[in-house]
Design a protein that fits this description.
The complex is a heterodimer. Chain A is 71% helix and 2% strand. Chain A is mainly alpha-helical. Chain A has a two-stranded antiparallel sheet with strand order 1-2. Helix content of chain B is 56%, strand content 12%. The chains are: A mainly alpha, B alpha/beta.
């Protein structure tokens, strides 16, 4: 087995997950002007719910569909019943509320699924493919194709089509957006919904290959944020930063060891922060 | 009297574990709660008072303990190891802060979250050094009895509360409130926002480090999760539940949660959900936490503004050119928002900057006050080139008001005005600054509002309060952005009188204004901009009669 090929393959799979998460994060950020720290919970909810439902004897497809719906319901109600009635609150408080929601989800997941990692069977089975000395399972191929395909479709929709641009315009100036007929509230709800579906898809496709536990959500939010921040919150750019991040993380894991992944990711975040600070003159701060 | 009451309450609280009326509240529980509260005071300063989202604060409780334990293993004497551990943690906190404080708050949130992942991960990854998942055994340098530990915990917590109480007030508190509420206004008032944030993060992490290292040595074993994400979120939950920003919030939060779990017994898995729900519900429905429910907010302490009149020392009237704008250009991509504009404002002169919407007036204003770097040209104040000076360095010589007043609604009018004097050279003592602010308010006829919070005062007065803040401390130049907009006729008259008085005192005043009547009454000179260019300049009557100005400003109707 070729270490490099294998690292590229896992990098692509991770990259697909980060693209899924990153674009949802960008979408929610650009429409609702706050960073949703509960974004990665869709991933964790789907994973734990699917594992429990499969264990309870539900057919795989039904279990996956149901857990996707649970994650979707969580994200939509977070926006509709918690954030939207408080739209005039300071952004920092709203971010804190999303963190609180993520925290509650952790608490629920540890009660439901325990502390040990859980998993469920892959959706796509069959002989793993061998490429250039590396092995990729069918599920992995589906993950890479769907991850980049769906994310690219969403990215192109946002960056290139009229209704996509309108969706993004909602955050830049809600008042003006409403004047030209964009329903800002609907745009935000749609954004949270899409974000949850993408996060859930990432979970459905990745978790059979690894596992999930109650605390995976914030780790996913963290990595999605790094991908989003590298791209400067751009809906198309985040695809590329997602791939780059996935490949980088997997190379670190392959050549330095998995133990170094967290510190190296943090180091990368520092580099991003320093890079983003470069335009800041006058000892001032950047206004988001 | 009040002191006696507090002392009695404190004595009862300290004696509580020995009286035995509270079930499950043993000295051991109380010791853990006290050390936890001590470390939470730091998070309360960072998050509760200053509003910075620090999501990985537990990391700074674990680092000093790990450092001390590892040093001790390598034959460094125990007490020295503890001190070094704390210093190491504080130094790391400083570095983390410096990296993230210049960016929007969310970067600090994600950065500190990531840091907690790193600390827990590293602690697990190197078991030969850190003890790994089974933990690092810590040996206290001094053998202490149960009661000895409790005494140390109470003493340290008492000292920390006193330190917080005596440092986080007056000037420092006003600065933090400004930074929390409005970073831009803070900078315009002379506050170096990133430095204040970095300092707050460092000081707060010092509290975390002291509390963390003591707790770790008391428990005797240090596990990786002590510095991880869950522990950090739990810390945040305790601060929020107790009452973010309140002096005793961390104590109430730590003790309350500790007691709750002591009574409930060790139902480990419920813990996270209880923390999470507590956090979530308090943020949504009782943002001031338990302390907010217990204590009604008291009005700001009123110090008597005696000897006020003497403090308002008038500066020697200055003469000549105050502000010189020379060939200033500001481009946004291809758009020339300000295109080669030159004019000057003399001391004792009111210059009005007028022009249709989008003419570049606000951009020029931002260039002068330092919010926007210049593309080309120079801005000089009394002959000194300001073009490269940061906003907060210009505060001493420039007082600025905003189109929509940027006051801190939770602070009193007096505190809002004092906040400007806080960061000027030559304002030495708290009493002096407050007296000076009081005199400043009196000069504007606002003394009746001094002790009232701005939130409770009608919007019509906000512009005047902001003007009295901007002109406090006699800045050479006043930049006023549409001061008359939204004011009643009576309020406009009051404003005009105030401006004329400031002019008589020798200030140079530059006003952006749309109200032509107001401009004609007060301005000595009018500068007209259109599409980024200066198209006319001169006495109000002459400029208004100019045909080009009439076309630009009123359209071809005129």
């Amino acid at each position: 087995m070729n270490l490099f090929s294998q690292a590229v393959i896992s990098g692509l799979m991770l990259g697909a997950v980060y693209a899924f998460l990153g674009i949802g994060l960008v979408l929610a950020y650009r429409t609702a002007r706050i960073l949703n720290l509960a974004h990665g919970e869709a991933f964790a909810i789907t994973g734990v719910a699917a594992a429990l439902l499969v264990k309870a004897g539900l057919p795989l497809l039904a279990a996956l569909g149901l857990s996707l719906l649970i994650a979707l319901a969580f994200a939509l109600s977070l926006h509709r019943f918690v954030l939207r009635p408080r739209a005039d609150w300071p952004a920092a408080t709203l971010i804190l509320i999303t963190l609180g929601a993520a925290f509650v989800v952790r608490g629920v997941l540890i009660l439901a699924g325990g502390t040990d990692p859980v998993s469920f069977p892959a959706l796509f089975t069959g002989m793993p493919l061998r490429i250039a000395g590396g092995v990729i399972p069918m599920q992995g191929i589906a993950l890479v194709l769907l991850g980049f395909g769906v994310s690219a479709a969403v990215g192109v929709y946002l960056a290139r089509t009229r209704s996509g641009k309108q969706l993004l315009a909602a955050a830049e100036n809600p008042f003006a957006a409403e004047l030209v007929g964009v329903d800002v509230e609907r745009a935000r709800l749609v954004a949270y919904g899409i974000g949850a579906i993408l996060g859930a898809l990432a979970g459905i496709l990745l978790i059979p290959l690894i596992a999930v536990d109650f605390q995976s959500g914030l780790a996913m939010t963290l990595r999605g944020f790094i991908a989003a921040a590298i791209s400067g919150m751009s809906p198309l750019g985040v695809l590329f930063s997602g791939i780059g991040l996935g490949l980088f993380e997997s190379m670190v894991g392959a050549y330095l060891g998995a133990l170094y992944q967290d510190p190296v990711m943090f180091f990368l975040l520092i580099l991003v922060a320093l890079w983003q600070s470069r335009h800041i003159r006058f000892g001032g701060t950047r206004r988001a | 009297m009040k002191l006696a009451l507090w002392a009695t309450l404190a004595a009862i609280a300290i004696a509580l574990p020995y009286i035995g009326i509270l079930p499950a509240w043993t000295p051991a529980q109380a010791t853990v709660a006290a050390f936890t509260a001590l470390s939470l005071i730091g998070l309360n300063l960072i998050f509760g008072v200053t509003g910075m989202l620090a999501l990985g604060q537990a990391a700074f409780t674990a680092i000093p303990a790990y450092a001390a334990g590892i040093l001790q293993k390598n034959h460094v004497p125990g007490l020295l190891a503890i001190v070094l551990g704390i210093l190491i943690a504080v130094a790391i906190a400083r570095v983390v802060a410096e990296i993230f404080v210049r960016l929007p708050g969310i970067y600090l949130a994600i950065g500190t979250l990531g840091f907690a992942f790193v600390v827990e991960g590293v602690a697990r990854a190197f078991p030969s050094i850190t003890g790994g998942a089974s933990g690092l055994v810590l040996e206290p340098p001094i053998e202490l009895s149960r009661d000895g530990w409790y005494a140390i915990a109470v003493a340290c917590l008492g000292l920390a509360i006193a330190a917080f109480h005596f440092s986080v007030r007056g000037r420092f508190l006003r600065t933090l409130q400004l930074v929390r509420h409005d970073e831009l206004a803070a900078q315009v008032l002379g506050i170096n926002v990133p430095r204040v944030k970095a300092n707050v993060f460092t000081i707060g992490s010092a509290y975390s480090a002291v509390g963390g290292v003591l707790l770790a040595y008391y428990v005797g074993v240090l596990a990786p999760e002590t510095g991880g994400v869950n522990a950090s979120l739990e810390s945040l939950a305790m601060v929020i539940i107790g009452g973010a920003g309140a002096l005793l919030g961390p104590v109430v939060g730590a003790a309350g949660v500790q007691w709750l779990f002591a009574v409930a017994g060790g139902a480990q898995h419920y813990e996270l959900l209880v923390y999470g729900l507590g956090f979530f519900l308090v943020v949504l429905f009782a943002p001031a936490g338990i302390m907010g429910l217990l204590v009604r907010r008291r009005a700001a302490t009123a110090t008597s503004p005696s000897a006020a009149a003497g403090a308002l020392s008038a500066r020697m009237p200055r003469e000549g050119v105050c502000l010189r704008v020379a060939g200033v250009q500001k481009h946004f991509g291809g758009l020339r928002a300000v295109d080669d504009v030159s004019f000057e404002v003399r001391f004792g002169q009111i210059v009005a900057l007028i022009g249709p919407n989008g003419a570049g007036k606000s951009t020029l204003f931002n260039c002068i006050s330092g919010l926007e770097p210049l593309t080309a040209g120079r801005v000089e104040l009394e002959g000194v080139d300001l073009s490269a000076a940061p906003i907060h360095r210009r505060a001493g010589e420039i007082g600025r008001s905003f189109q929509v007043p940027r006051l801190v609604p939770e602070m009193s009018t007096l505190d809002n005005v004092t906040a400007r004097l806080d960061h000027l050279r030559g304002s030495r003592r708290e009493n002096q600054r407050r007296a000076q602010a009081q005199a400043q308010l009196a000069a504007f006829g606002l003394e009746a509002f001094a002790e009232r919070r701005v939130r409770e005062i009608g919007l019509g007065f906000h512009k005047l309060i902001e003007l009295s803040r901007a002109s406090a401390g006699h800045p050479a130049l006043l930049l006023l952005d549409e001061p008359a907009v939204g004011l009643t006729t009576e309020e406009v008259a009051r404003l005009a009188a105030a401006l004329q008085r400031l002019r008589a005192e020798g200030a140079a005043i530059l006003v952006v204004e749309h109200n032509i009547d107001f401009v004609s009454t007060i301005a000595d000179e009018v500068v007209v901009m259109e599409s980024g260019r200066l198209i006319a300049r001169g006495a109000p009557a002459a400029v208004m009669a100019d045909r080009m100005v009439q076309e630009a400003y009123f359209g071809s109707l005129a």
